[in-house]
Specification:
This protein is α/β, with parallel strands linked by helices. It contains eight helices and eight strands; from the N terminus they run H-E-H-E-H-E-H-E-H-E-H-E-H-E-H-E. The chain has an eight-stranded mixed sheet, sandwiched between helices. Helix 1 (31-44) crosses helix 4. The radius of gyration is 17 Å and the shape is globular.
Length: 241
């Protein structure tokens, strides 16, 4: 559909199938988003095929640039704002939503944000197969799918197995920042993060963190707050042990 752009299933059959923590969303790609995908993917995009390790220094053109992985970025507005506010940090933003990928590429070009790279595919394969140990300076998981039905809780991303994998890719002292407006999921996040031997809460009281200034308030989040939703932030630090 977009020659030279993201492919539908980049990992294909290279890796075992597992319970997915995300569901592909199908929606219309606007002409502007499609144009950005066609023109910019070869420069700022990558498909998560899991076939070879990723050199982040080469990807961003600066081996000294600290890189934060963002898992799930929606339409990319908050990602673009964070990239603009902190140009000395690279953001590797991964999602499976094609309109959002195109929108973030367009925002990056429009605002001259050379510190954004857009990854298409499964973040677990990216972490497990393509990122080297201690290669990330941070990780952000904002408003992941809450999978509210009890039988689907196993699909939630923030689980002990995920944290163990993430810890191997985060540098000691790196921050893992999660946010959700689904309170039962926030409670689970706090429980599993607190129990993880690889992370420690940055909050002295062991609870949730007030929304930091560097995480923008998105339109989606604002609508939820207007409806009475409660948003919880959790910021945990990768321990050195």
């Amino acid at each position: 559909m977009f020659p030279g752009g993201p492919v539908a299933d980049p990992a294909g059959s290279h890796h075992e199938r597992r319970i997915r923590s995300f569901r592909p969303r199908r929606s219309r790609v606007t002409p502007g988003q499609g144009d950005a995908l066609r023109r910019l993917w070869s420069q700022w995009g990558l498909d998560i095929d899991g076939l070879q390790p990723l050199d982040l220094g080469q990807l961003f053109g600066d081996p000294q640039l600290p890189v934060v992985l963002e898992i799930g970025f929606g339409m990319g507005e908050a990602t673009a704002q964070m990239a603009a506010a902190d140009p000395e940090t690279g953001i590797l933003a991964t999602d499976v939503h094609t309109p959002g990928q195109g929108n973030l590429l367009a925002l990056a070009e429009r605002n001259g944000l050379s510190n954004i790279r857009v990854a298409n595919g499964d973040a677990i394969i990216l972490l497990r197969e393509m990122l080297r140990p201690d290669s990330l300076s941070g990780m952000r998981v904002y408003f992941p799918d809450p999978w509210p039905k009890k039988r689907h809780h196993k699909r939630r991303l923030i689980q002990p197995e995920f944290l163990a994998l993430a810890a191997t890719r985060l540098k000691p002292g790196a921050l893992l920042h999660c946010a959700t407006d689904w309170e039962p999921y926030a409670e689970q996040m706090l429980e599993v993060l607190t129990a993880s031997p690889d992370f420690e809460n940055t909050q002295p009281d062991g609870g949730y963190t007030p929304r930091p200034d560097f995480r923008p308030l998105t339109k989606f989040e604002g609508q939820g707050l207007d409806k009475g939703h409660v948003v919880h932030d959790l910021i945990f630090r990768r321990t050195s042990g």
